[in-house]
Amino acid sequence: MIGRVPNWIVWVVGVIACIWVIPIIGIVVTSVRPPADVTLGWWRLDNIRFTLDAWMRVWDEYPLANAFWTTLWITLIGTGATMLLTPAAAYAFHFLKFPFRRTILVIIINAFVLPVQVVVIPLFQLWRDTGLIDNILAVLIPYVGLSFAWSIFLVKNFMEDFPKELIEAGKIDGCGPLATFWFVVLPNSLSAIFAVGILQFLWCWNSLLLPMLYLRTTIPLPVLLTRVSGTYDLNWDLRSVAAIVTTIVPLFVFLIFQRQFAAGSQTRTGAKE
Amino acid sequence: MSMSAADAAARSSQVSSPVGGGRRKPVAVRRRRLGETPAAWLLIIPVLILFSITVIYPLVETIRLSFFDIKGLGKPKFIGTGNYIKLFTDPAFRNTLWTTLVFTLGTTTITVSLGWFLAMLCSFAPQRTLPFRVMIFAAFGISEAVSGYMWISMLRPDQAGLLNSVIGLFSPGFAHPWLGDPNTALWMIIVAASWSGVGLPLMLCFAAVQAIPKTVLEAAYMDGAKPFAIMRFIMVPLSMPGVRVAIFINLLGALRAFDIIYVLTGGGPVRSTETVGYFMYRESMTQFKLGYGAAATVILLVAVMVISIPAIIQRTAGAK
Question: Given A172, A229, B110, B280, which is the most exposed site by the fewest CB atoms within 10 A?
């Protein structure tokens, strides 16, 4: 970029990056080596054997497959609901006029500061009284409800740059508010809605506190992992597989999204300059 | 065309419409305004219902419960500020406040300074450091439950723990229960949380520097500025907005921290790693002292609110 870049800079960043992935490499290596070979550490090279034994056995030892499907279902429904409801509300807040519009908007977008701990006790009582404990609705409702604070903010910000001409053109063609939303605004806001979907996907998949408290038998992956990782059992190989299964999907989604995120942020700043 | 002019007038402002002239508005304009309200409510009503159940109601209810003494399923008894007085005379809670402070400041300092430093280095060679940035950012995409498990295996108390082994290179036979010693457990949680978190300030500051127009940097270079001077006078000041956002996000995240503490130590040993966000869980969900836990949550809420005042003002002013 500017002048000659000293090589040591790249080296320093490279060494730090390699240190950074050691914990990740650790569980991957542990998962494919026989436990007997790694009692003195997964990095030992004196007896290298490769095995997929843990990858085969883990499904019988832990209810990992069930937890995977539970997680996938909860995440997809939670993400879908947010992706559907957020743009509708953001459109109403940005383009339509109705009483208390700004008051409601200010309350919703400032709720992002609330820690999730605030919902723990009241919703626990509410679900206990309504018999929703151990029903996936007990986590789905807060997943979706708590997402609006940031998702509406994000989509509405995107709509601020929305070309007014398109709205006017829609109106000339006889679109009412709902038709304008469905045929004009929605199809042109997909990138913002998609960004909301990715964030919500990661958040739903990785959540621990709420499912841990409100679900008992149908548990998602992070809860299953904490149930087996806190124990003093010596199946490091099985637990490592469980950890990899828990994180592989969101990690890939995250890494793919991260590239778009970097590119998107650059083009956006470029467009605004 | 006249239709769109009327619409534009209706949408533009509350001042009297130039189309109708005077105080009377054209029928079309008035009907439009009334006509938008039902559609708007239709679109936001699901959001309002869900938001009320999961944000408004819990917020009000948590504050209300904090004034009650609740034992399990028994009838709540109003005790005024009793829970708060009890909190501040409870040595465990006072210790919790200190732990929260150390954890919040520790993770934020390490995360933001290291992330910012790496961002500055990466800015000199954006292409060549791309894979390294992805490697560091990847840690940010791993859930706390999983990264907690990774660190449990890194910090095993025996020789199979990597940290013990590395220190063992210098003093053979070294073995320390990092997570079982009250003096080191909190610091290990800070290390684990920082490991996950560094990617965010790295990306934010890096993006801020990348947004500097190339011509500015080239001009500085043509004027004979050395790389260090470019960093000192151009990159550092222009990355500060990224640093501010990163500090705020990290403070907020550290105050709410729960998962990483739950997975690594469960608040132990001897409650040495309990932050306020964890304390409220322990008191309300394991001891079933719901009122007492609610009071601790309100304290957490106050701390979060104080930190967020600038962000709240900014968002409120920006909400058009």
Answer: A172
